[in-house]
Each structure stands twice: as structure tokens, then as C-alpha cells.
Amino acid sequence: MITLYETRARDIYADALVWDTHSGFMPDPKADLNNLQIWRDAGVDYLSIDVGFDLLSWEHTVKTLATFRHWILGHAEAFCLAGTAQDIRRAKAEGKMAVTFDIEGANALDGRVEMIEFYHRLGVRQLLFAYNRNNLAGGGCHDEDMGLTDFGRAVIDEMNRLGMFVDVSHCGYRTSMEAMEYSSQPVIFSHSNPRALCNHERNITDEQIKACAETGGVIGIVGVNIFLGAKDIGAQALADNVEYLLNVAGPKHVGIGLDYSFPVEGSAHINEQMRANPGFWPPDKGYDFPDIRFVAPAHLLELTDILLRRNYSEDVVRGVLGENFLRLAGEIWR
After folding, report:
1. pLDDT tens-digit readout, 64-94
2. What number of H helices and E strands is found in the chain?
3. Least C-beta-crowded within 10 Å: which of 1, 56, 121, 216?
4. What angle, 0 to 180 degrees and rounded to 10, lies between the N-to-C axes of helices 324-332 and 85-93?
5. Three-class SS state of 197
6. d(Cα 135, Cα 138) in Å, to the nearest integer?
7. Does an H or E element contain 305, and which?
8. How crowded is the C-beta side of 15, counted as CA atoms within 13 Å?
9. What is the pairing mode between strands 79-81 and 97-104?
């Protein structure tokens, strides 16, 4: 029997703009993007697709971006390659899922600020500075954090000029704080959880959470088991992390960044990548799990129901589901 809470949750979820600000499947030209139907079936209206991270060469990132972009444009009956917040609203009205791309780490720039405009023109709307390890732009969360570099500041200047999300997930504490202080536009954590609930170096402190909110930014809850601090992953674990962020950052600064992954045939699974590259994923930091598990997009409807049962208002729930990130895109993207 469907309860009144469940009926209300379904109505709100169907009408809300549902935004997932980061995919977790391997950024590889071999990826079967027919799997994007997983998000569509779950009622997700927008997804930022990862096309590269610092372990991969910039050439690999360009190949992946070209391949993914071509596929999205070739499936215009179901997907929309977006560039602005208005594109995303229009896609929802037309029953399509909007897509942009993101890059995890400045290695994809090959040391050249000019690459940012190149990526922006091809649909990249967010770039984070360092993926776990230090690079030319700044420090990673699993390295001796050197802070934001002169190159990193030049990258922020160019991203602010073009209208892109400055993303500090995976970065070291010092780098994230310096980036948030330096940027003239709001800064996001696309997929990071509160460290107070799960003491992992990939998660973020209350100080980082508050600093992000002070910039006007948004923090996306990530649905990976080792960052959730719960044995049984699912909507309840997501809700606990969302609730913590709502209390610390405020209702305008919380969103979703599931980092959901599916296997890519012919490419190393994320678990294999972790075992082969202990510098990026140190085993003593919890990456020695035999099975990294992910909260699927299908759990977002249940998350809506749980938040309503916890007496959060419809406006707050809609903000978490996507309207906070949509608002920010309206302010920043060009």
C-alpha cells in the first residue's frame, strides 16, 4: 500500500529538476553510453559526465570527450548537450536528459590555460584542480598539500571569465580553502561528504563546508560506500549525509553528486585501477575494499521520501534534488 508520504514524494520528484553533478564510470571511449538510460529511468534530468581525471593523459581526455560528445549529439531524441541553465530547463520540458561534461584534475590542461576555453566550447562546465595527488594547479587530498599554485590561480581566473564551476572535490584542505578564497565566483564540491560522519581524507571538514557555503557554492553528496560511513548503502545513508550538510551549510548549499559507476567493457574497472595505482588510491586509506559499491540513481526517489518524513519542506527537498545546482548554473554558466 502506497502511503501519503510516498505519493507526495513521487509527485514532487516527478516535477522537480533532478540534478546529478558527477558520473563515476570510467572516462573511456569504449564506455557504452546506452547505460545513461540508468539515469533516465531513475528520473534524473541532468548529469555531468566525467571525461577524464589526473591519472589519464590529456590526449585520452580529448578522445573521450570527442567520443562522448558525438554520441550525445547523435541521440538527440533522448539527450541534450547543454551549455546553460536554460538548456537544462528546456530539456526537462521536452522529456530529455541534459548533459554536460566535467574533468577531474588540471593535468588535462597540459600546463596550458588556453585549454580551458577549448574544453568549455566542447561542453565542459566544471573542472576540479587535483585528483587525490598534487599537480601543477594545486594539492590533492592524498598528498602533501602544497596549496593553490600560480598556475592554479590563472586557471581560476580563466574559469571565472568563461563561466564554469570551480570544483574542489578530491583536493587537499589547503588547496580547497585557498581556491574558495581566491575565486570571484561561487565554488563547488561536486561530490564530497562530511568528514564528521566518515573520517576519510576524501571527505571534507565543517570548515570547508562552511567556506563553500560562504562563497555561495553547493556541495554534492557522493554515494560511494567508503565515503558514506555506513555498512548498508542506500537512500538512508544519503539522507544522513544530506541532513548533516543542511545543518552545517544551510538549505541553499546542498545537492547530489552520486559518482555512480557501471562497468566499461574492455577497460579496467575502478577496483582494478585502484589496485594498479596505489599512489592515487592508497590502500591504507580504505581503498583496499574488495568491492567498491555505489548508490544507484534509482535511490533518489526514496531519498525524497525520507527527507519529507524527516519534516524537511518541499522547497528544501527540491533544492537538494537539483534546484540549488540549477540556480548556481544560472548565475555562473555562459
Report:
1. 999 999 999 999 999 999 999 999 999 999 9
2. 14, 9
3. 1
4. 130
5. coil
6. 6
7. helix 300-309
8. 10
9. parallel
